[in-house]
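Write out a sequence, fold above all:
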Amino acid sequence: MTHMPQSASQPVSQPAATPQRVVVGVDDTPSGLAALGWAIGHASRAGVELVAVRAWELGLPRHGGRRRHRDRRPHPQIVLDFDGSEQRAAAVELVRRAVRMMTASAQRDAAVVTIVTPEGEPGSVLPRIASRPGDVLVVGHDPALTLKRAVHGSVSGCCRAHARCPVYVVPARKGTYLG
């Protein structure tokens, strides 16, 4: 079940029952921030936990580069070992900054926010996390076709195809960037 909010605060329809948790994919794009803002409002109104997810993967260029030679070392004397701690810390900081930005002007009670930073592709990680009964999943969507989406695919499309809960797809707000 997919819902497309007409704006960041007005969904086309509500789930049949009050959600138990709102799971939102977070990134620093205008659509990611719009999704976070909408999810904060939805969780606050429903009085439920907000799970803010920033998935990361060493194989993604933004998260630490490619790992083409995972099973073999590039040179016998060079050992590269990534445990993901830097990427996980950067993901947590990005989510904290985004939540602060999106709640700075909020006049309502804020939702309880849990930050989750799993390793993996966002399109497969988000539906797995939003798998409890009563969960709803919120993701952003930028309608522009970019090279990045052509290569990596659409996170919102993957979530719509694989999630077993209602999925809210929030369009980007122009000019909203994480500074």
In short: The first helix runs from residue 30 to 46.
